From TrEMBL:
GO cellular component terms, A-Z: plasma membrane
Domain of life according to the entry: Bacteria
Organism in which the protein naturally occurs: Planktotalea frisia
Similarity comment: family membership: Belongs to the binding-protein-dependent transport system permease family.
Name of the gene encoding the protein in the UniProt record: yejB
Transmembrane region(s): 9-30, 130-151, 163-189, 219-242, 277-304, 324-350
Membrane topology label: Multi-pass membrane protein
Gene Ontology process terms (BP): microcin transport; transmembrane transport
Chain ranges of the ABC transmembrane type-1 domain: 128-347
InterPro entries: MetI-like, MetI-like_sf
Name of the protein this chain belongs to: Inner membrane ABC transporter permease protein YejB
C-alpha cells in the first residue's frame, strides 16, 4: 500500500503541470487582460469589453495608429503602456512567463494579486475558512442523513415509507441550490416572514467579545442557512446510491446464508452488508466534497454575502487577476487530488481485502 500511495503522490506533479499548461494556454487567448482592465478604468471606468463591440476611438488611432495592441489605450502615451506591461510581466514572451511561474511555484511562491496588494497565499488563507465551512459541514450532514435514510429505504423497499421519502428526495434534488437559498432568505432571514437567521457573514460584529459557547452558537447560527442550501441536492444522490447499493448486497447469497445461521437482522446489515455496500458510497465522497467545496460555493457565497474562494476565483477571472487565477486553480487541483488519495485509503479502511497494488499489477 505504501508503494501505491507513493506512486499516487508522484502522479500529482504531472497532473498539476497539465492543469497549469492548459489553463495558462487558454488564458493567452482570452481578451481583456489586466493591462486593458487598468486602461479601461483610467479612461472612465467603463467595461473593458466595450471596445470589442466595434466602437472605435479617433484619439487612440491618432496616438497609436489603427493597429494598437490595446483597445483601452485611448490617448495614453505608449511609454506608459509599456511600463504597465513591464509591471505585470507582459514584456516577456508567454513561454518565459510560464516557466518563471513554474519555478516560483516550486518554491511555493504564488506571487501577489495584481489589484489587491496582497500575496495569493494570504488571500487564499483569508478566504479558505468560508469555503471549508460550506464544504465540510455540507458533506458531513449529507452523509449523516443520507446513509441511515438509504439503509432504511433499502430495508423497507416498496413500502409507503420508501415511496414518500423518494418523492421528497426527488423534489429536493429538482430544486436548484440558488433558488432554495433565496427561499431560505425570504422565509427565515428577514425577507417577507421571519427574522431568525442573519443575512450575511460567518460571525457577528461582536464575535470577539463572546464567550467560547457564545462563539460556537454564533458560528452555527450564521452557517445554518448556507449549509442547508449547499446540502439540499446532495441528499438525493447519496441516499439513492446507498439504497441501491444495499439492495444489491442484500440479494446476494452470503446474506441469505447469514440469515439462515440465525444472525439478527442488525448483525446481517451492519456486520456483513455494510462493508460491501458502503464501498461505492465512500468512493463518491471526493465528488460530493469537491462539488460542494468548489462548484456550489460561488452562488451560495454570493447570495449569503460570504467572502470565500468561490467569489475570489470569480472576481479574479473577471478582473483578469492572473496570479490569483493560477494560484487558486493550483490549490483547487491539489486539494482534489489529495482528497482522491484519501478516498482510496478509506476504501482499504472499510474493506482491508482491497489491495490496490495487486490491482495495478
Amino acid at each position: 500500500m505504501g508503494a501505491y500511495i507513493l506512486r499516487r503522490l508522484l502522479l500529482i506533479i504531472p497532473t498539476l503541470l497539465g492543469i497549469m499548461i492548459v489553463n495558462f494556454t487558454l488564458v493567452q487567448f482570452v481578451p481583456g487582460g489586466p493591462v486593458e482592465q487598468v486602461l479601461a478604468q483610467m479612461q472612465g471606468g467603463g467595461d473593458v469589453f466595450e471596445g470589442f463591440s466595434g466602437g472605435g476611438n479617433d484619439v487612440a488611432e491618432e496616438t497609436f495608429g489603427s493597429d494598437s495592441d490595446y483597445v483601452g489605450a485611448r490617448g495614453l502615451p505608449k511609454e506608459f503602456i509599456e511600463e504597465l506591461e513591464k509591471e505585470f510581466g507582459f514584456d516577456k514572451p508567454p513561454l518565459e512567463r510560464f516557466f518563471n511561474m513554474l519555478w516560483n511555484y516550486m518554491r511555493l511562491d504564488f506571487g501577489e494579486s495584481y489589484f489587491r496588494s496582497i500575496s495569493v497565499v494570504d488571500l487564499v488563507l483569508e478566504k479558505m475558512p468560508v469555503s471549508i465551512t460550506l464544504g465540510l459541514w455540507s458533506t458531513i450532514i449529507a452523509y449523516l442523513v443520507s446513509i441511515p435514510l438509504g439503509i432504511r429505504k433499502a430495508v423497507h423497499d416498496g413500502t409507503s415509507f420508501d415511496t414518500w421519502t423518494s418523492a421528497m428526495i426527488i423534489v429536493a434534488y429538482a430544486i436548484p441550490g440558488f433558488l432554495f437559498a433565496i427561499l431560505l432568505l425570504v422565509l427565515f432571514a428577514g425577507g417577507s416572514y421571519y427574522q431568525i437567521f442573519p443575512l450575511r457573514g460567518l460571525t457577528s460584529e461582536n464575535f470577539e467579545d463572546l464567550s467560547l459557547l457564545g462563539k460556537m452558537g454564533d458560528y452555527l447560527w450564521h452557517i445554518t442557512l448556507p449549509v442547508l442550501a449547499s446540502t439540499i441536492s446532495a441528499f438525493a444522490t447519496l441516499t439513492l446510491l446507498t439504497k441501491n447499493s444495499f439492495l444489491d448486497e442484500i440479494k446476494k447469497h452470503y446474506v441469505m446464508t447469514a440469515r439462515a445461521k440465525g444472525l439478527s437482522e442488525s448483525k446481517v446489515l451492519y456486520g456483513h452488508v455494510f462493508r460491501n455496500a458502503m464501498l461505492i458510497v465512500i468512493a463518491g465522497f471526493p465528488a460530493v466534497f469537491i462539488s460542494v467545496f468548489f462548484s456550489g460555493s460561488l452562488i451560495i457565497e454570493t447570495i449569503f454575502s460570504l467572502d470565500g474562494l468561490g467569489r475570489l476565483g470569480f472576481e479574479a477571472a473577471v478582473a483578469r487577476d492572473y496570479p490569483v487565477i493560477f494560484g487558486t486553480l493550483f490549490i483547487f487541483g491539489l486539494i482534489g487530488l489529495i482528497v482522491s488519495i484519501l478516498s482510496d485509503l478509506m476504501y482499504v479502511l472499510v474493506d482491508p481485502r482491497i489491495d490496490f497494488e495487486k490491482r495495478e499489477g
